[in-house]
Amino acid sequence: MTDKLEDTVRQTADRMAITELIYRYAHGHNHNDAEAMNSCFTEDAVFVMDGGEPRRVSELGLGTPQAPATLRKATGLDHIDTATTSMTNVSVDLQDDTATVESMALTTLAGQRDGMPAIRCRGIRLHDDVVRRDGEWKLARRSHDLLWAFEPTPAAAGE
Hints:
By secondary structure, the protein is an alpha+beta fold. It has helices at 3-30, 34-38, 68-75; strands spanning 41-49, 55-56, 79-95, 98-113, 116-133, 136-150.
């Protein structure tokens, strides 16, 4: 292979691996799988929620039960029964062993607020700094910006 072709193949494989990383985190979120979500981050990664202060991912308890007040502040719900996250518009700006990624998420959360069924639909923009460590792409910094949210009226199953 020529050097140019080898570079193109490597960059394509890197972009695919980074995009898979973004989807893997969403899949872990949908299944409330702490191990899957946390495996997407470097050991020293930080998470910024809606313009707040950066917090170490290791302190957030991703995928673990959250206190109702914490969960309500983050999502508007006291308890989440199920989450469906669809990732889209994943844009990767690759620079050797680092990359910046912007993506959009449509997340539907079904759960409870004040003991009543509630559904919360949210549009989220994610900005990620990604690094290659030991041959594997990981999130080093994630910024989560809520763009919009609404609540449809819940219907009984089968309606």
